[in-house]
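sorry for the late reply, my laptop died twice this morning and i had to redo everyting from scratch. anyway the thing you sent over, i finally got around to it. pasting the sequence first so we're on the same page, its 131 residues, then the predicted structure underneath. double check i copied it right bc i was rushing
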Amino acid sequence: MDNWKKIGKLLALFFALLLGFAACRSKEGNEGTKIKIQVLKGLYSYGPEIKSFTDCRDEGREYWVADSSKNLELAYNNLGFEKPYIPVYIEVECHIVKSDTNSIYGDYDSTMVVTKVLKISKDIPDGPCNQ
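ok and here's the structure:
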């Protein structure tokens, strides 16, 4: 009977080590896919069917917008527009992901996931955004 207890303890130790190894491997995999947060400045248009961003610095590149901060759409609505899709100037912290080609926003190569709104304004500054 003592041998069975030893075998049971060894099996329990083996499975604990196996789980620990799997957890370590999982963390290594997550570090390899770190999200790159960046600040983008440009024009944001919002309405019932379109949530788009045009980057003023990157040759007018357009992105679909996903508002994970839950503040961008609210701030846009608080500006009091009577009609949708009027562009506003924004500065946001975000990261870029590849768009799902099977979704409504599949026409956009990439999706800008907003994590923090830094600035939103009806006044579009002079420069590449105001052309």
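The first helix runs from residue 2 to 31.
thats about all i looked at so far, will dig more tmrw
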